[in-house]
Amino acid sequence: MTVLNEFADGLRGFLRTIGLTTLFFGRVLSQVPRALLRPRLIIDQVHNAGALSLVIIMTCGLFVGAVLGLQGYDLLQRFGSEDALGTAAALALVKELGPVVTALLFAGRAGTALASELGLMRATDQITAMEMMAVDPVRRVVAPRFVGGVIAMPLLTIIFIAIGIFGVQLVGVQQFGVDTASFWSQMRSSVGMDDIREGVIKGCVFGVACSLIAVYEGFNAIPTAEGVGRATTRTVVTSAVLTLILDYMLTALLL
Amino acid sequence: MASTAPTNTAAASPAGSDTLVEIRDVHYSIGDRAIFTGLNMSIPRGRITAIMGPSGTGKTTLLRLMTGQIRPDRGQVLFDGADVSNLRTQALFALRRRMGMLFQNGALLTDLDVFENVAFPLREHTRLPESLIRNIVLTKLQAVGLRGAARLMPSELSGGMARRVALARAMATDPDVLIYDEPFTGLDPISMGMIVRLVRQMNYALGITSIVVSHDVEELSILADTSYIIAGGKVAAAGSFVELKDHDSEIVNQFINGLADGPVAFHYPASDYYDQLLSDPDTA
Question: Regarding beta strands B74-79 and B82-83, do their DSSP bridges make them parallel or antiparallel, or are they unpaired?
Fold first, then answer.
């Protein structure tokens, strides 16, 4: 019975969290139009979530692309199809690796920064001070950060994919001598708008999910050092798990 | 002799021209712990009112009730006649525009410098031209002696300076009431003296109502026109500081004179000391 009770409690807690997150999402969305009227706040947050994540996104994109080049070349040469390296790597990056890895990196860099910043604002009474100044913190603080994350994520995904393809080209063409013309022409002829659309849609959806989780966890953090730490950890873990679940659902839907 | 019957105080001061905030029979609990059990209080308009009491008696909770951050389980909190606990968000925010609050740690927005912190409520609530906002902010900073620190970030300020900036921010929109939550905690004597002087100046120069929550008896004795001592979920005594000093209540006497033992025991409730020392550590 104890196990059953614990399971029931866990399920109840899980459903409660989903309900609260949905309500919070509605509250944030209702404030987005007003946040958009102050583009300066949004630009600052696109800079924080996007520009400050560029180095890690570009570095990881380059190495993910390079590894993809190594593995792809090793696999394709067994079938004498090295020329298809550009197509295979580009499709993998555009449809899957680009959006997913970017989302995971985004959760680790920008998501944790968002959650800890909001959590510390809660812990140091800054959020309460805003409420006392009759300023809705969801409008002034949360909505701009959410929108900033949602805008930054697809842009980071595109950059990750571009740098990743450059990494594949470095290994495939420069190191292993795959024909440059075949590499690029096959890629251009095989990767269609549908593939790019799939990647961009995933980037946008992951952007909404990861940004929402970060601002929800941060805004509702228990106002102690431990509470902020837990909120930050939960941001990474929940974002990663949700990204992979959403990835499966979107892939099944868009294929 | 001070009033020991806060109900009488409340009843004698209906919401009107003399009373800005009135608390009527407020009950509030956190979990199983009752914080207030029938609290009555009247805050006179245009005066400095001190709310004192031992740690953990719910002084900050009372401020949260007054400002509508939390709602009482029972009873009414009236601000200028309006029941704060029944207001919807828009009406509550409209009411809060008439309040300024100084938090214990200042609660300055850490991503904005001193100037922008003071300008924050003006930018959020008004469409004043930049030149006017600048003049208002500089006037408020001059009043707290920190005009020269306008471009410093909150992390570059001392505790006393942060509280003075927070005071400038709290009065940026010229509120009707300024609420101070433990304004003297952790300050050196010079900073404390500055804050005491500023609270008095703000109150008398601008004609606003001040509510100071603290347990610093010495500072409040200089500052407050009226004082309330809260203990046991109710008002234990109310009146001027001179009246409180002569109060016959044991708890008031212990608090005002800083006695180590009395109704507020030095020891947290526990089992017998010797029994616990001699008992099995695993069961203690």
Answer: antiparallel
